[in-house]
Every structure is written in C-alpha cells, then in structure tokens.
Specification:
Length: 117
C-alpha cells in the first residue's frame, strides 16, 4: 500500500513533465518556434535592406543623369557623338612554349622534365 501511494504521484509528475517538455506547447516546440521567428526576422531584415537599395537605385535612375549615363554606357555600350571608340581584337592567351635546350648550351646539367619539378 505504501509503495502504491508513492508510484501514483510519481506517475502523475512524470506524465505532467512529459507533456511540459514534449507536448504541442512544450519546451521543445517553444524553442523551435523561437528559432523560426529569429530566422524570419533575419530574412525580413535582408529583404528590407534590399528594398532600401532598390529604392535608392530607383531614385538615382530618376534624378541622377550621371548614374543613368553610366548604366547606358556599361550595359548597352552607348557613347556620345563626339567620342571615338577603339576596338581591339581579343588576344589569344596561349601557354608559353617550353625552352628547348641543346647539347652545347649547358654542359653537365640534367634535362628538366615535368616529373623532376
């Protein structure tokens, strides 16, 4: 009888403790919700910063003629009427040819190979 009176309150405490930690409104769920909220707030801050950046760019495009000209030059290749454009063909970047040694150039030196480097 004494043991039974001891196990009933212990079982009730374990039951309550289980739902306090693992239930729908338990500590683990609350911790998970806090992490989600913090992540959403960080994402919101990033979006606000990007929105501010885009608003500044809109304002610059509407009012700053130099910025508009730089965009036109960079993105569309536009030039003024009195400017001269020099276009050069792209240079082909070929690897330098390895130097060939002859027998008379360096006496006593070992021939170099890729494996010895």
């Amino acid at each position: 009888m004494q043991k039974r009176l001891f196990f009933v309150p212990a079982a009730v405490i374990v039951f309550i403790l289980y739902f306090t930690v693992f239930g729908d409104r338990g500590l683990l769920r609350i911790n998970h919700l806090h992490r989600d909220r913090d992540e959403m707030q960080r994402h919101l801050l990033e979006l606000k910063n990007e929105n501010d950046k885009l608003k500044r760019e809109i304002s610059a495009l509407q009012s700053d003629r130099r910025y508009l000209e730089s965009i036109a030059r960079r993105d569309f290749g536009l030039v003024r009427g009195n400017e001269v454009i020099y276009q050069f063909p792209p240079q082909a970047k070929s690897p330098p040819a390895p130097a060939q040694e002859t027998k008379g150039d360096q006496k006593g030196s070992k021939p170099t190979t890729a494996a010895s480097n």
